[in-house]
Amino acid sequence: MDEFVRAVEATIFASSEPLTIEEIQGYSGDGDVEAALATLAEIYTGRGIELVERGGRWHFQTAPDLAHLLRRTREEPRRLSRAATETLAIVAYHEPVSRAEIEAIRGVQISKGTLDVLMEAGWVRTAGRREGPGRPLLYATTQEFLTHFGLGSRKDLPGIDDLKAAGLLDPLDQGVFEALEQLQLESEEEDD
User: With a threshold of 0.70, does the pTM exceed it?
Assistant: First the structure.
């Protein structure tokens, strides 16, 4: 293993947070970071820790099949209300989205607490303001959302056909996703 690959490995290992290629380059110096990452990913494949990329950021994580060995206390799974789950799905599939757009898709008003819960969990963040009357706040998902759900990017979110095939949509959920798809199509038409 050459010195640059070792420098990239040390940089990622010592970091408390996942790093972008540019951040890795800033610490490890001149060299082909992508080639070094490919080399390291190959070296760590099948080992106790793995080098993974989530949302354009790289970090080491425990191999998923060994994670249970490291848990000392049982983590209580975070239970989201139906409203919070629907809101999170709308934000994930249609970001950036305003509160009014979320309410239009769901067909009911959402309490401020619903967005607060998602922001407290670190899965949703404010993403600026929409140019227009009232300049409403826009919401988007975070890097923590991608990491928590094991997604490399938003493109890895399952489509409606995938959710139907897995039996994860009941008729009510299907209506929400169909409304979301229709809104997305209308938005794309406006952009053209």
Answer: no
On whether residue 76 sits in a domain, the answer given is no
183 shares its domain with 100: yes
How high is the mean pLDDT in each 10-residue block of the chain (192 residues)?
A: 90 91 90 93 91 91 82 64 85 88 86 86 89 88 86 77 62 61 67 60
Name the residue among 24, 21, 88 with its Cα closest to residue 55. 21
Taking a C-beta distance cutoff of 8 angstroms, is the pair 149, 55 a contact?
A: no
Domain boundary residue, one of 70, 103, 124: 70
When divided into structural domains, the chain yields a total of 2
Rounded to 5 degrees, what are φ and ψ at 53? -115, 130
Q: Residues 119, 186, 182, 184: what is their CA dihedral angle, to the nearest 10 degrees?
A: -30
Q: Is residue 75 part of a domain?
A: no
- Could you say which DSSP state residue 19 is in? B
CB under 8 Å to 100, separation ≥6 — which residues? 136
Domain that holds residue 48: 3-70
